[in-house]
Amino acid sequence: MSINTFFQHLSNGLALGSLYALIAIGYTMVYGILRLINFAHGEIFMISTYVVFYGVSIFYLPWWVSIIVAIVITGLLGIIVERAAYRPLRNSPRISVMISAIGASFLIQNLAIVIFGGRPKSFPIPDYFNTVIQVQGVSVPIVNFFIPVITLVALVILIYIIEKTKTGMAMRAVSRDYETARLMGISVDNIVSITFGLGSLMAAIGGVMWGLKYPNLIPLIGLMPGLKAFIAAVIGGIGNIKGAVLGGFLLGMTEIMIIASLPNVTGYRDAFAFILLIGILIYKPSGLLGQDIGEKV
After folding, report:
1. How far, in Å, CA of 161 to CA of 168, rounded?
2. Burial class for 263, CB neighbours closer than 10 Å (0-12, 13-18, 19+)
3. Handedness of CA 113, 120, 259, 267 (dihedral sign)
4. What is the model's pLDDT at position 37?
5. What is the per-residue pLDDT across 94-126, written as a single tens digit (0 to 9) for each?
6. How far is 177 from 196, CA to CA, in rounded Å?
7. What whole-number distance in Å separates Cα of residue 148 and Cα of residue 159?
8. Of all helices (H) and strands (E), which one includes residue 135?
């Protein structure tokens, strides 16, 4: 592999890793609060891409306005999913909550097929993002630079919210102990809803970025990226936001570099993510940056 080819694949790996990281943040935020996985997260990611598509193609909204609308709608959808699928079962056995979350995932997925149709659609991409930059003889799409920057900006803003604001302090308190947080006057239900909303905002941003990079839209578009983002969250240490970002970058880089080095196994690219997951669970079950804090009761 030549130096130019290596840097070409490096840019693709960073872009793909950034996408996984954005989606993984939502998984890890919800797990940090509830110790449960939001199985509808991939479908929430998918909805954001369709909102942008219809905003531009049907309602003729400016591209940036469609993005804002998609982020708002997706954030609200995350809150609705929490209130409909999680909150009524807050004190139920975890298996009941998990089944409810899986049901919400299939419901959104199949509603999308009915409403949007199964025919693939093309994500609207502004001409600017089709630009290709030549860097030392390497052709790099400008979107490959744009996606990691957006990921890092979103991460910095999210960490600021969690570590420097009263809402973030309440989120950290709830993640430690529900009952103690209630005794301190924290509305646990509201904090959980805010957490779902913020996680869904990250999924929306990830959806928009995914559409820029991979513009083919189908109602099942969130299935595999959602699974891989979950794997990224586990690799980094689920419940740890920085770990989710690290896991996303590692997974994206590993996936791209393997298929670049071994083009004959490109058809098995999804399998490498699961192999990596198994390896992490065997040798470091808590993830790279995770801590074994035991079961939350």
Report:
1. 5
2. exposed
3. positive
4. 84
5. 888 889 989 999 999 999 999 999 899 999 999
6. 18
7. 16
8. strand 132-135
